[in-house]
Protein 1
Amino acid sequence: MKTALVTGANRGIGLELTLQLLDSGYDVHATYRSSKGGLEEIQNSALNIHQMDVRNKEEISTVIKSISSLDLLINNAGIADGHWQSISEIDMEHALEVLNVNAVSPVLVTQQVLPILSNQSTIVMISSLMGSISDCRSGRSYAYRASKTALNMFSMAMKNELDGMGSSLLIIHPGWVKTDMGGPNAPLSTDESVRGIMQRITEQNMSMSGRYVQFDGTPVEW
Ligand SMILES: NC(=O)c1ccc[n+]([C@@H]2O[C@H](COP(=O)([O-])OP(=O)(O)OC[C@H]3O[C@@H](n4cnc5c(N)ncnc54)[C@H](OP(=O)(O)O)[C@@H]3O)[C@@H](O)[C@H]2O)c1
């Protein structure tokens, strides 16, 4: 049985990833920051629920110690920025927090899982189209955009070393999805988005390491 670790799994895309990974036969370690949320309703012996704030090294370490080998890491946890409308409104304290959660914390989690990664493992970074510099036409969403661009570069900067460990890297835009973050007008359900993400994970191999694609496999320009 393959083993997966999903961050931010109590709601939204992370919860749906947990459900579909369980359906696909994975042993899932699902983590939440403060409330178990939808994880509490899942009855499945292959589900292991852990409290883990992705900013907290000690909490990450405790979770990793309970897993012997990992085939799939999904760095999913993320936060939005302050919906600032102009440069002068950017709150730097919150901007740093967005960068910390969305860009630095996935690296912290990845660092900690290295010793337990299996050969032919996959590391998924839930990025965003908003991290694409070439797609940044409307501007704004300053910190969120910058955080996802930084996540992409952190990922690519780690790629060669991960290749050497037999671990392949998938950087993915889940689409615009109906969640607390995506809002009610988003065109995609979590089910549709995650079905696509699951297909991308299934087809992923070492020769695809470092690709930046949408949930449906369409390449995203950097
Ligand atoms: N929805 C979209 O349209 C869309 C589009 C592009 C990319 N994405 C990306 O997809 C991922 C999931 O987003 P979503 O739409 O499912 O958002 P969501 O419904 O707002 O869920 C975000 C998840 O991240 C968790 N989280 C936030 N900060 C955390 C921390 N410090 N430690 C641990 N967990 C933390 C939240 O936990 P709490 O419940 O404790 O807050 C929650 O489980 C994010 O990386 C987001 O940037 C989403």
Protein 2
Amino acid sequence: MDKSKSRREFIELSLKAGVALSAVSPALLSCSAPGESKEAATGETSNKLNILILGGTSFLGPHQIASAISRGHAISTFTRGKTMATIHNELFDQVEQLIGDRENDLTALENRKWDVVMDNSGRNVEWTKRSAALLKENCDLYLYTSSTGVYYPYLEDNYKESDEVLLSLPEGVDEDIKFIYDYGIMKANSELAALAEFGSDRTIVVRPTYMIGPADKTNRFIHWPIRLSKGGEIMIPGKETDMVQYMDVRDVAEWMIRLAEDKRSGIFNAVGPKEEQNIHSFVEEASKAFDVKSSFVKIDSHEFLVENRIEYIVPWIMPTGNNQGSARVSNEKAINNGLQFRPLSETVKDTYDWWNSDAISQEQRDEVEQNPNSLLAREQSIIEKWKAL
Ligand SMILES: NC(=O)c1ccc[n+]([C@@H]2O[C@H](COP(=O)([O-])OP(=O)(O)OC[C@H]3O[C@@H](n4cnc5c(N)ncnc54)[C@H](OP(=O)(O)O)[C@@H]3O)[C@@H](O)[C@H]2O)c1
């Protein structure tokens, strides 16, 4: 088997989507008080803001726009005009769409004022440094979208926002996994770049774990909605002690808007579910999205899974090597500052509906659903092999 290739593909996918992983196996308004109902946080607010999103048209951005508009805020986006949203397109005629390039053309942002800047597209420290320096006199607040990738390598447990993170590459890192370190180091230094320009009382840093939900174009989570919708005998990879973490992208987006309304500066992990969850209960909970009959085959031997080229199916990442603690990030501070979580079955069902909507072409669906190397295609023979042991 070409393990290094499958790992590399996974890592590249993960990095594109924003969470750093090990290469040895495979990314404020009226903040409702904890316990306050979600409805209370989604109506119009009297504290209307002008919000600039650096980005806004891929995954997180359209959900931020939907949440902000529902709260009565005004939105501008800044992009190259290349990426088209696959959700909430109907809202974009209410959005001021500024065109430029973070690499070399910020003209559209000059001499303009906003209350809040949300930096989603920051994947280069210089980009964040330049936009924060340009906007700091004319904007009150800078929200940088970072990642739990700053904690890589994940060798600890219960990662907190105050934990030290790597700011430069340690000596002796294997060339193969260097770029995974680079992602976390880039995010950590970008956080500092935003803080240096806006100061700690005007900077919000949000570090999401894997974001899942409608408009996720990475295809790394879609296995579950597709597979669970069919029912029957379903494979669950991993041991009872294999934890998972993920966040519905809409819960992150809504929370970011509320953090900005409240001017709640600080660094926050954005990590769910609320309570610890292992891969077994994740699948059982997610399966409630569909009214079909299912049974589960738990394959809890890491050795067998590796032999059969199953080292990750997001949100499950085999917790070995540098990934031991990848699903062990604390959400205590986030919950105390208003992070809320919708039911997993809602996330799975809505992702399934988006996947089967006009937003995705039949060709894109076929690439995943008809791929002979996918787990969807290989699952039944792996189950048979496992049962025969
Ligand atoms: N997905 C995850 O699981 C995950 C987890 C943790 C952290 N994150 C982080 O979350 C953030 C949000 O990503 P997203 O893609 O969902 O955000 P988004 O705001 O929905 O989309 C990204 C935007 O960046 C724009 N862009 C790309 N290159 C640009 C450039 N050179 N100049 C100007 N604009 C540019 C794209 O538009 P154009 O192409 O038209 O320019 C697009 O609108 C990222 O920083 C990522 O690292 C993601």
